[in-house]
């Protein structure tokens, strides 16, 4: 490989909105045959909003919103932001939280007005969900919403449904990746029904859902063990290790610093179509060299 051609490749990358860690990155891009896409913030906008609130019989909806909103106020997660903001709009000023705890890929806990409140998919509340709440949760998830359980003092009290939209460019990006001969795979910690609804919308057949943050790496390794050469595109703190493990890591420039540091390439504008541009560019650059 002549270094000059590689340097030209990286310069062209900058024009396209691709930041490349080093010229050698273009080499590893060549053999990629599988593209793993994180869902939230990568295929979808990651800007979630609050939709439905379901409560158990005898429970006040505003109370569920206030207590859930109070705990989520302390978290940066897109689900948390949607709940805190929506709760404030619908139920007024949020009380303070003490003993806040974030459980990555699961949810949050904290003490609010003397109650032990939890929000998310924490086993202590999802394991024995009353039938009415379980049905509401299933229905919301079939509609592509992320549904989380709100409970306090050992009892599940409600379900809150949030959703974000698929990015305008995602379906086209998936088509372009396929046209390059790559197999797209959707990878997410979110519920399977939600993941499948999003996958359908953008044209992805292969879905790996309900994956804990620490297991995203294992999911990438499994694909590699099948003999695939894997590119991973992600934006979150929980994607960083998988980005580093993949043969090629592409970070969304709109995402977290952790993801950007772990990636080999950064898609500056957070447009998934640029992932296809990056692969096209590297193939062209390397063809010039040969
Ligand atoms: P993704 O892989 O889509 O970026 P995460 O791994 O961050 O998602 O989260 C997986 C799931 O864990 C969420 O869909 C949600 O059900 C739950 N969860 C995570 N953080 C929170 C939170 N702060 N509040 C409520 N639920 C949460
Ligand atoms: Mg994400």
UniProtKB/TrEMBL annotation:
Question: What does the sequence similarity comment in the record state about its family?
Answer: Belongs to the cation transport ATPase (P-type) (TC 3.A.3) family. Type IB subfamily.
List where in the cell it is found: Cell membrane
Q: Supply the name of the protein.
A: Cation-transporting P-type ATPase B
**What is the originating organism of this protein?**
Streptomyces guryensis
Report the domain of life of the source organism. Answer: Bacteria
């Amino acid at each position: 490989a002549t270094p000059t051609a590689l340097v030209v490749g990286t310069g062209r990358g900058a024009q396209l909105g691709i930041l490349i860690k080093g010229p050698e990155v273009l080499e590893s891009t060549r053999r990629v045959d599988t593209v793993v896409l994180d869902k939230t913030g990568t295929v979808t906008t990651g800007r979630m909003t609050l939709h439905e609130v379901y409560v158990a019989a005898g429970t006040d909806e505003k109370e569920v919103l206030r207590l859930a909103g109070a705990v989520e106020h302390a978290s940066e997660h897109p689900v948390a932001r949607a709940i805190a903001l929506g709760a404030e709009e619908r139920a007024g000023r949020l009380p303070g939280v003490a003993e806040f705890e974030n459980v990555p890929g699961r949810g949050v806990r904290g003490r609010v007005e003397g109650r032990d409140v939890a929000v998310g998919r924490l086993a202590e509340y999802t394991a024995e969900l009353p039938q009415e709440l379980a049905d509401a949760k299933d229905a919301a998830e079939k509609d592509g919403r992320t549904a989380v359980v709100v409970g306090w003092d050992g009892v599940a009290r409600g379900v809150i449904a949030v959703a974000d939209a698929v990015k305008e460019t995602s379906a086209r990006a998936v088509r372009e990746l396929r046209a390059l001969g790559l197999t797209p795979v959707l990878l997410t910690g979110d519920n399977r029904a939600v993941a499948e609804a999003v996958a359908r919308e953008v044209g992805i057949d292969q879905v790996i859902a309900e994956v804990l943050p620490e297991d995203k790496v294992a999911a990438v390794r499994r694909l590699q063990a099948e003999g695939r050469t894997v590119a991973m595109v992600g934006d979150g703190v929980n994607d960083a290790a998988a980005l580093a493990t993949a043969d090629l890591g592409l970070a969304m420039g709109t995402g977290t610093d952790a993801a950007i540091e772990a990636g080999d390439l950064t898609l500056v504008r957070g447009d998934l179509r640029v992932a296809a541009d990056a692969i096209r560019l590297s193939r062209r650059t390397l063809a010039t060299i040969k």
